[in-house]
Amino acid sequence: MQERHRLGEEEITRELLRPLMTTPAMMWVGFIGLGAVLAIFVFAVSWMFYWGLGVTGLQRPNMWGFMIVNFVFWIGISHAGVMISAILRLTQAEWRRPVTRAAEVMTIFSLMTAMLHPVIHTGRPWRTLYWVFPYDFWRNLWPDVRGPLVWDPSAILTYLTGSTLFLYTTMIPDMALARDRTTGWRRVLYTILALGWRGNERQWKMQTIAGFLLSGLILPVFVSVHSIVSWDFAVSLVPTWHATVFAPYFVIGAIHSGVSAVVTLMALMRWLFRFENYIRLEHFDAIGRLLIAVGTGWLWFFLLDIFFAIYPQEARELEIMQFRLFEWPFNVLTALIFIFGYFIPVPIWVFQRFRRNVKIMFWTSILVNVGMWAERYWLIKPGLMRKYEFTFDWNWYRPSIVEISIVLGSFALVGFLLLVFSKIFPPISVWEEKEGQHFAQQLRVGKRVVNAIVREF
């Protein structure tokens, strides 16, 4: 990267391990604020478990509400880690270095939060877990292995396992570094996690090979997870859900929201931990360029989904699409999706001076994810509200205070876990930053000296 400052190894180590050694005042504010919202989340879930799922107001035909919308949203956010880490690692994109770890951690916490929602949604999760594990095959009750609802947990658990291994493999050298600079319980923890790392040639070779192999192996899982989540809807007969375009549409939407969430995280880390030397304006510039392409791809599939619903001229599809586009409150929601998801952020990102403005990138990334959450709601709910032809089967959906608390609590849960992680482990990969400094060279081209990255293969 052209704007990298020349920093010594000791300086990099000291600055990137600083969040482990000291706690800024804003971090305490974050812990207290997010902890308060989490307390409301726990109370809401406990209240629902005590009184039953009826307190949410969910009833036929609206059996899915905010919790499933939130499940799809967090699965989408989890795509940021692989997009930033695996793909950019394989393509040797230099600007990935300061954001890979945060993106990988966000992937894991987002997946864990997403998995929580279907379990909570059962209303009596202990009964669900009791009857499902171990599965009762002796009664000849066989699940339909052709259904995406069976593939869903397999794909998500595989993605979670792969992402955790991927993150852990890249953290081992930093664990050894923290082991050598701490005492007490931290030293014991880092000693165990470092797996005897001494930094010899063989260990570096094995770590590099493992990183590249996991990057390649996790890519098919990355595509399959949100494709399978989309098939949960696409294989049903609910109007406007039964669309062949759902798989690529969900994947591109997931990347749009996930990479935008990484921008939000980059800005917060830069402000909270004073990482200006590592998360530089050129990183926001590069990721802003990527988001222009991703956002435009998402808009194309969004319009394609509308077109595919209208094209067959089926009465039920047209009715739901008219409901989505022209009737309250979904007409307002449609406008918000367009405005927040594309028409405000993307034209702003076209200009380099805005891409290099951290505050503007932060707020536009927030707008994208507001729009993308609304898009998930827009996709799922209207079809359920008017699922049947008889009017006495129609029913409106209004989210209850319990569901709203669970949605807000899920955001607090991911934020809280990220803060806890930053307090225990380096939020930016120390060894990757040192590696970037090692590769950075200055080359003379004619009369000018330019910054360059030089690697030996």
Task: Give structural notes.
This protein is mostly helical and 457 residues long. The chain has a single domain (9-453), classed as Formate dehydrogenase/DMSO reductase fold. It is built from 19 helices and 2 strands. A hairpin with a 2-residue loop joins strand 1 (440-445) and strand 2 (448-453). The two termini are 19 Å apart. 37% of the residues are buried. The model has no long low-confidence stretch (mean pLDDT 86).
Beta-strand residue percentage: under 5%
Walk across the major sheet and give the strand order: 1-2
CATH C-level: Mainly Alpha
Number of strands: 2
From the N-terminal CA to the C-terminal CA, the straight-line distance is 19 Å
CATH topology: Formate dehydrogenase/DMSO reductase fold
Quickly count the helices. Answer: 19
Task: Please compute the radius of gyration using only Cα atoms.
Answer: 24 Å
Average predicted confidence as pLDDT: 86
Low-confidence stretches: none
What's the main sheet like? 2 strands, antiparallel
What does the overall shape look like?
globular
Q: Which structural class should the secondary elements be placed in?
A: mainly alpha
Protein name: Probable molybdopterin oxidoreductase, membrane subunit
GO cellular component, one term: plasma membrane
Transmembrane segments: 28-51, 63-90, 102-120, 156-177, 208-229, 249-269, 290-310, 330-351, 360-380, 400-421
Subcellular location: Cell membrane
